[in-house]
Amino acid sequence: MQKIKLHPSGREIDCQTGDTVLGALERAGYALPNNCRAGACGECKVKVLAGQFDQGMVLDMALSQDERRQGYGLMCMAKPLSPELIIEWGTEDAKPKLFPPREDQRFVLVDRITRTPGILELHLRPVGQVMRYWPGQYVTLGDERAGAPARCYSIANAPRPDGEIVLQITRVEDGRTSRWVHDSLALGDVVKLSGPYGTFIGDLSVDSPVLCLASGSGLAPILALTEAALRRGYRKPVTLMFSARTADDLYESGMMKYWETKHRNFSYKPSLTREHCDGMLHGRLPAVIDQVFKDLSQHSIFVAGNPDFVSASVAAVKALGAREEMIHTEGYFGQAQPETAPASHLMTT
């Protein structure tokens, strides 16, 4: 058992042998930003002030050699080696607002719906205790025995009393897990979910207009966030812009119309990139946002989709005045398989 100390507060948490720093922090309820959980995105980068840790195999684009020399590490892969590891983490550390994740929670597949030619929606009911999570978080799903390694999927619905979780999974031809989901999972099958994970969550204290931008299955966490906000009676304008290639790739259109009818402050604006359709925008979202908004300086922005879409969208909203501290992003990275680093790659400070 090791200790992780948060500087400058001095707070300490326990880290079990073999556990990652991120895992230990989440079990203690701390909201360290993270995304890919595989050393690929750099969201969980912090500076290690004292102690030794095994960094594991991470991508140079997420943690450069210069950053390593300065003492930075990616906490999703870092495992403490010394009795105490001191990390630099803000002035408030991160308020203990996340629910501790649990591994291998059993769920039954009660429904599967084809949303688009490439996106399958799963409805999963818990066998035991209901999973507690914040809208915008994600879980891992897989079955090693079936050759489907655990992969990260955003929850597409706000929490419900019966604990049902909705996942929207895009088929990836070279993705073993997505092919297993699309081709093999049947109604009544029991699967195991671990989670919840992630910090792409809404701030309940925010009282500003909201703009949500999504592409592909990046719509999933946006749906959960929007549903939760409208359910609790959020009064400021909420706009959801969704990018798809063709009209066949648009999904949840019925729900969008329902929300627009029931909540006068909600508006849905899809955009198609490969065909024209009356009443819809045409083009990639980053290029058409300025057709809808001229000033985003007072908006809270939520963006979810592939990394290129997220980067371009962030640049576009900043050009319209969006403030850095009010922009929240969730980029979907390829899920690398963690490996143990050789001794020559171990990081010390």
From TrEMBL:
Query: What is the species of this protein?
Result: Parazoarcus communis SWub3 = DSM 12120
Which keywords annotate this record? 2Fe-2S, Iron, Iron-sulfur, Metal-binding
Cofactor(s) the protein requires to work: FAD
Location of the 2Fe-2S ferredoxin-type domain = 2-93
- Fetch the Gene3D superfamilies from UniProt: 3.10.20.30, Nucleotide-binding domain of ferredoxin-NADP reductase (FNR) module (3.40.50.80), Translation factors (2.40.30.10)
The record's section on InterPro entries has: 2Fe-2S_ferredoxin-like_sf, 2Fe-2S_ferredoxin-type, Beta-grasp_dom_sf, Cbr1-like_FAD-bd_dom, FAD-bd_FR_type, FNR_nucleotide-bd, MRET, OxRdtase_FAD/NAD-bd
Q: What is this protein called?
A: Ferredoxin
- Give a yes or no for keyword Metal-binding in this entry: yes
* Domain FAD-binding FR-type stretches: 102-203
GO MF, one example:
2 iron, 2 sulfur cluster binding
